[in-house]
Write a sequence for this structure.
């Protein structure tokens, strides 16, 4: 009788018949975390991209690929329940993140990600389930990224809006309740529209999850029937009444919560030092991929801002409200894949047990987002697996000691080796730091040209490329006291973009947005005179379009500003793409002059 390969594997798994089978992988003597609890030592058989037998007791056959699991733990591949998968997608899988829940992508990007996910031969990248376009107001959060967003202004638009997302392929619906923070403002959907969107999503059998950043919005979203909150919020200690009220709402609505500590810490100015100090993890990152981990949103460390989310996480978990592990990777202070290991530690620090944190990264998000074939070690489930040294149910740090990863049943170690070799090769390349002029001056302004001694040079910059309406006019101004010509910058900042800007930029490489090595400098100096208003000077690095800014004031008289490059938190001078002087984000007219801009070694 001719057996199919799958049938053959089943026979191998469940009988002792003398059948010659094609090669399957047998992981022996391994401790198993099945997605909710730690099981004793057992054998696990996988083949054809599936878990054939999660507790194999049959004979070992000559054709089996044997893996020694002694002293190790096998667990489902990690599921990051909150990412923005727009770049660096070579990373998640090599850190054991086999599935990602993407909270916002352009339609074509989402469709490409879903197509790759549905190909069972995909063994090179994590699977992605995406919300696609998010629901937001005109000039709301989500509209600031430079591509067109289908926005809403009233409840009557909700059902048609949801139906358009479903037609595009959205796996679930994400709704934004966000007013902004200090120094910036977003328009937000009104509560009636949020309620209508949730109702419309449920009418089509789709989950409705809500982005919130305040306690009041969290309560309002849950009262409106949200299936989940995709963030918690920073803040100091909450009262027992505030805690209990939110917990009761989440529990009554059977909602889940994704705290996203990795990005909340970044907002609080806190770096993920545990992973930054882990050489084995960090050696898989290129320079540009390390950069986001070193750059936080908050410029000052404010540990007390984590009191509220930690309190809430502990209380929600105690009340058996599902807490999911999500990093918000794609933001400052995070990186795809590696941040998941920090997020697990953050959940434990917030009061969850290591086993509960593991569940929050495996079976809990699979259940919450209705992913029926992953998140557990169970017969018939996808063979997306992570093998680690030690017992992560006792020491959550054990998830970082990766032995092997399987994606659709295929080992990922060749990808890890390839990435390791590429990073080592790139790091071994001899530095090509740009020789700086003896006086360090990079501004050679004249009536004929805004010149520079190297690079592409100086040019105007505004938010127009992001759909903004700000404008700028550049001209030669009065000389500064030592006789150097100045650049006059007249900017008009308008509110057409969420973070409006206008000013001037210097490209240090021969082409705009290429990386240049400015490691020969450790100080930026310039002279400035202006209208008494506040401005920003910032560096942008390869792999990011968000500058690392430091503020300064343009006083009525000439003054020199001296800034050590260490002041630009997270800056790697070897991969600089741009230096910018900008007005904004407050709307209005601005006028300043800059002169004698120098990069120096002191």
């Amino acid at each position: 009788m001719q057996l199919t390969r799958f049938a053959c594997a089943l026979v191998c798994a469940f009988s002792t018949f003398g059948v010659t089978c094609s090669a399957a992988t047998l992981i022996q003597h391994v401790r198993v975390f099945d997605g909710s609890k730690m099981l004793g030592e057992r054998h696990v058989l996988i083949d054809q991209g599936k878990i054939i037998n999660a507790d194999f007791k049959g004979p070992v056959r000559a054709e089996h690929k044997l893996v020694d699991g002694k002293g190790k733990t096998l667990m489902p591949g990690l599921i990051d329940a909150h990412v923005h998968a727009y770049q660096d997608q070579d990373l998640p899988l090599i850190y054991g993140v086999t599935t990602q829940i993407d909270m916002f992508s352009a339609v074509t990007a989402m469709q490409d990600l879903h197509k790759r996910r549905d190909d069972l031969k995909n063994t090179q990248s994590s699977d992605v389930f995406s919300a696609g376009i998010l629901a937001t107001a005109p000039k709301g959060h989500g509209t600031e990224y430079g591509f067109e967003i289908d926005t809403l202004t009233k409840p009557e638009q909700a059902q048609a809006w949801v139906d358009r997302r479903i037609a595009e392929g959205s796996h679930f619906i994400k709704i934004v309740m966000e007013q902004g923070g200090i120094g910036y403002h977003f328009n937000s959907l009104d509560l009636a529209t949020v309620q209508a969107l949730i109702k419309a999503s449920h009418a089509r059998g789709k989950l409705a999850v809500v982005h919130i950043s305040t306690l009041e919005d969290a309560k309002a979203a849950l009262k409106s029937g949200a299936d989940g909150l995709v963030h918690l919020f920073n803040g100091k200690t909450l009262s027992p009444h505030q805690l209990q009220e939110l917990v009761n709402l989440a529990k009554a609505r059977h909602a889940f919560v994704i705290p996203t500590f990795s990005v909340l810490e970044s907002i609080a100015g806190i770096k993920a030092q545990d992973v930054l100090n882990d050489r084995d993890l960090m050696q898989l990152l290129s320079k540009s991929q390390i950069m986001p981990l070193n750059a936080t949103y908050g410029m000052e460390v404010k540990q007390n801002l984590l009191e509220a989310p930690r309190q809430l996480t502990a209380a929600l978990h105690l009340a058996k409200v599902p807490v999911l592990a999500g990093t918000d990777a794609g933001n400052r202070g995070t990186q795809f894949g590696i941040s998941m290991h920090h997020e697990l530690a953050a959940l434990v620090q917030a009061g969850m047990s290591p086993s509960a944190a593991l569940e929050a990264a495996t079976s809990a998000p699979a259940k919450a987002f209705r992913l029926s074939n992953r998140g557990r070690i169970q017969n018939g489930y996808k063979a997306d697996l992570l093998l680690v040294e030690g017992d992560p149910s006792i020491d959550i740090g054990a998830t970082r000691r990766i032995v092997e990863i399987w994606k659709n049943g295929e080992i990922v170690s060749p990808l890890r080796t390839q990435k390791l070799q590429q990073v080592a090769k790139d790091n071994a390349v001899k530095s090509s730091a740009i020789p700086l002029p003896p006086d360090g001056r990079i501004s050679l302004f004249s009536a004929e040209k805004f010149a520079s001694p190297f690079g592409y040079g100086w040019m105007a910059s505004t938010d127009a490329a992001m759909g903004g309406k700000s404008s700028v006019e550049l001209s030669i101004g009065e000389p500064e006291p030592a006789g150097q010509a100045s650049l006059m910058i007249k900017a008009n900042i308008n509110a057409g973009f969420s973070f409006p800007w206008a000013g001037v930029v210097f490209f240090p490489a021969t082409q705009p947005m290429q990386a240049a090595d400015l490691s020969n400098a450790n100080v930026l100096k310039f002279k400035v005179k202006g209208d008494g208003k506040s401005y920003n000077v910032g560096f942008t690095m390869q792999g990011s379009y968000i500058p690392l800014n430091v503020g300064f004031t343009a006083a009525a008289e000439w003054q020199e500003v001296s800034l050590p490059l260490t002041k630009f938190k997270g800056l790697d001078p070897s991969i600089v793409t741009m230096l910018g002087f900008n007005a904004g984000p407050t709307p209005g007219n601005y006028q300043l002059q800059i002169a004698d801009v120098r990069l120096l070694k002191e």
Summary: Confidence is low (pLDDT under 50) at residues 1-22. The chain has two domains: 84-380, 444-600. Residues 413-428 form the longest helix (16 residues). Residues 84-380 form a domain with the TIM Barrel fold (CATH 3.20.20.140).
